[in-house]
Design a protein that fits this description.
This protein is an alpha/beta fold and 321 residues long. It has two domains: 157 residues, no CATH class; 153 residues, Rossmann fold (3-Layer(aba) Sandwich). It has nine helices and nine strands. The longest helix is centred in the first third of the chain and has 39 residues. The chain is elongated and about 75 Å long. The structure holds S-adenosylmethionine. The site of S-adenosylmethionine has 22 residues, from loops.
């Protein structure tokens, strides 16, 4: 059924429905974390029965693009990034359009299941429920594949993005980057997420303390509950001025909590900063952070990384001026 519905959805043209879907079901992830774009499947009861007939959550990482602010001599600005950010904006529009059509398909699935369940009880109702669960699972997978195709431009290799996140976290390391960072030991990492980089660094003999405030769902890995990631907020950096500060793919500024990476710089009193992420206007940090770094820190090394398609992270080392 869902294949037919997807076809229906593809040919339909409504806009903004996905937002209302996310609001209705209250499971969208975009509110606190500006860099998640998603919506949730809610709960459906048939014909007054109390049974929940379908539940699932669909969320997808989508780097947010901030307004471009040109600067002349910045390590955080380069041609490929600029072109990539324009392309990202185009893809964001395409994704929004697709999600609006997906929202219609989703409603169709629920409406049809609701009709099928009318007047049915017990075993017959259970069968309708099972069918609906299967439909929603198929729908979820298809939507995820289409989203990946739109966002990352890759023919959706099943789970490719998730595999990448599980293995590396948000940004893939290279041997050169890890060696460079391990050479700056001891290190303190803030916003370590699933702790994938920290684990690699430990294996290379690096003395690293990794912290995360555990308020977000970590991308991949074991989450911030990984044994080597301690719960801690930016303020703990005040105690670790003797270590190099490592920020890997810090979140973009959020109107409710501000800019995490800039806050790190306010608390950290040491003299070495390692930043892994996109440059100005990209998915990470904020203009406040980039301006602060350019003013108070000198870039001593940039290492090219091997980002996922449509992503533009670099590895930077800075020394306090
Ligand atoms: C985009 S994720 C990156 C995680 C990891 N570094 C990676 O590359 O996979 C940003 C991380 O920063 C953490 N974070 C955000 N604000 C924080 C804060 N104020 N203090 C500590 N961690 C924070 C989040 O919990 C999340 O795990």
């Amino acid at each position: 059924m869902w294949r037919r519905l997807i076809r229906v959805a593809r040919s339909a043209g409504a806009a903004a429905a996905v937002r209302s879907l996310a609001r209705q079901h209250g499971q969208g992830q975009s509110s606190r974390k500006g860099y998640y774009y998603g919506f949730g499947f809610g709960v459906l009861s048939l014909s007054g029965a109390d049974t929940d007939l379908g539940r699932g959550v669909l969320g997808v990482f989508f780097p947010q693009t901030l307004p471009w602010k040109p600067s002349t001599t910045s390590p955080f600005k380069w041609g490929e990034l600029e072109a990539g950010l324009e392309e990202r904006q185009r893809r964001a529009g395409e994704l929004e359009d697709f999600m609006a059509r997906a929202a219609i398909a989703y409603r169709n699935i629920l409406n049809l299941a609701s009709k099928r369940g009318e007047g049915k009880e017990d075993e017959a109702l259970k069968r309708v429920q099972t069918e609906l669960d299967e439909d929603l699972e198929g729908f979820r997978i298809l939507i995820q594949q289409e989203q990946n195709k739109i966002i990352y431009g890759v023919e959706a290799v099943e789970g490719a993005r998730q595999k990448y996140l599980d293995e590396y976290g948000c940004a893939k390391w290279t041997d050169e980057a890890l060696a460079e960072l391990a050479g700056l030991s001891p290190v303190v990492e803030m916003g370590a997420g699933g702790g994938q980089w920290a684990a690699q660094l430990k294996d290379r003999g690096c003395d690293i303390l990794a912290y995360d405030n555990a308020k977000a769902i970590a991308p991949g890995g074991n989450g911030p509950t990984a044994a080597h990631v301690q719960e801690g907020d930016v303020a703990v950096l005040a105690e670790h001025g003797s270590r190099a500060l490592f920020l890997c793919y810090p979140p973009p500024a959020d109107e409710s909590v501000g800019c995490m990476s800039a806050q790190c710089l306010q608390h950290y009193k040491g003299d070495t900063l390692v930043y892994v992420g996109e440059g100005k206007g990209g998915a990470n940090a904020s203009w406040v952070f980039f301006d602060l770094v350019e003013k108070e820190w000198e870039c001593t090394k940039v290492v090219a990384l091997d980002p996922f398609p449509q992503c533009y992270e670099h590895f930077y080392v800075f020394k306090r001026r």
